[in-house]
Amino acid sequence: MRSEAAGRADFSGIRYAQCWEDADVLLSALEPGPGKRCLSIASAGDNTLALLSRGPESVLALDLSPAQLACLEIRVAAYRTLQHGELLELIGCVDSGARNGLYRACRRHLSSGARAFWDDRTELIDAGVGSVGKFEHYFTMFRERVLPLVHPRDTVGELLLPKSGDERRSFYRNTWNNWRWRLMFRMFFSRKLMGLLGRDPEFFRYVEGSVSERILKRTEYALTELDPALNPYIHWILTGRFDGALPAALREENFEPIRRNLDRLEWRCGSLEESLGHDRNFDCFNLSDIFEYMSPSSYEELLKLIVSSARSGGRLAYWNMLAPRQRPESLATSLRPLAELSSKLFARDQAFFYSALVVEEVI
User: End-to-end alpha-carbon separation of the chain, Å?
Assistant: First the structure.
């Protein structure tokens, strides 16, 4: 099989400098404990490293983009070399004037390709490596140029303060959800603008209906039914920092377990289709939202290949953002939807812009 996405989208630059799927949900979905063999879409590396915190037998990270694997590599080098607070500085979670020094300390643990990549981009190191992807730049533009036209800084700060559910709903209804917010959302999170500034336009090929309206509904849920004060993704989008609400891979309690298990991690540049022709017997598949970019027929064929590469009882976890994908009937005898678990986990998913989480189990 050939990768459909590889033939259409540009993977030369850093598209995602962070993982924008909730790792806590992912860990609950896959249960990647001792003895488990994991396959993970690398992206920026955070969620791949989060899998290591649970002590699996091995993790294989794949990505079509050398730039994304450079993001994973610099994180691996940072876990090997730095202390937890220094890692947060390098990523850009806290202010720092020492990032280039931290990079130099990590540099010897990089492959020659990753070393050349980051040596040529010292300005990205200075900015914090978690802030330099196309998707993160999109949110920076939103935070710095668009949001101030809708709400003053004090209102943004108030949104992020701890509140009860009733208080959050009242604040959203009476303060946050004004006509400027709704108008801005429909414009800035439209299919056209997101394709131009955030995601690759090709990633919308199989999307139907209004992009902004669907994301707005999920955003309202995240700002009212979930707690923004505890949500790392909302904190970063609105402030450019996590402010203590850290995703799983960056929490202090996971730092040493990840460091301890780094030798169980392997990464490879290439497609899932190519790799699964050689690697077998996986228990856990972190598939990010890769099926979003595929036609239904390509999705079905790749799903068959994944199932053939899995152990019985193995689990798949993947997100739908705007293109609905779930197990086709042709795989009914070999793949079982875990609908109740999917629904339960999706209800607490803090990466709020997705429309569905799919968890399935190999029979």
Answer: 23
Query: Would you tell me the crossing angle of helices 84-91 and 66-81 to the nearest 10 degrees?
Result: 150
- Residue 322: its pLDDT value, please? 77
- More confidently predicted of 205 and 73: 73
Using the predicted structure, report yes or no on whether residue 210 has a pLDDT greater than 80: no
* Residue recorded with tokens 């290591």: 52
User: Is 104 within 8 Å of 98 (Cβ atoms)?
Assistant: no
Q: At CB < 8 A and 24+ separation, what contacts does 102-107 make?
A: 102/78, 103/74, 105/81, 106/74, 106/77, 106/78, 106/80, 106/81, 106/82, 107/77
Rounded Cα gap, residues 35 and 39, in angstroms: 13
What's the CA gap between 61 and 39, in Å, rounded?
6
With 0.90 as the threshold, say if the pTM is over it: yes
What are the percentages of helix, strand and coil residues in the chain, rounded to 5? 55, 10, 35
| pLDDT in the model for residue 318 | 98
What count of other Cβ atoms lies within 10 Å of the Cβ of residue 165?
A: 11
Query: Could you tell me where the beta strands, DSSP code E, fall in the chain?
Result: 37-41, 58-63, 265-269, 282-286, 310-320, 335-337, 356-362
Token pair recorded at residue 344:
């339960």
pLDDT tier at 323 (50, 70, 90 boundaries)? Answer: confident
Euclidean distance between CA atoms 26 and 316, whole angstroms:
10
Residue 152 has which token pair?
């003053």
Q: Distance (Å, rounded) from C-alpha 288 to C-alpha 13?
A: 18
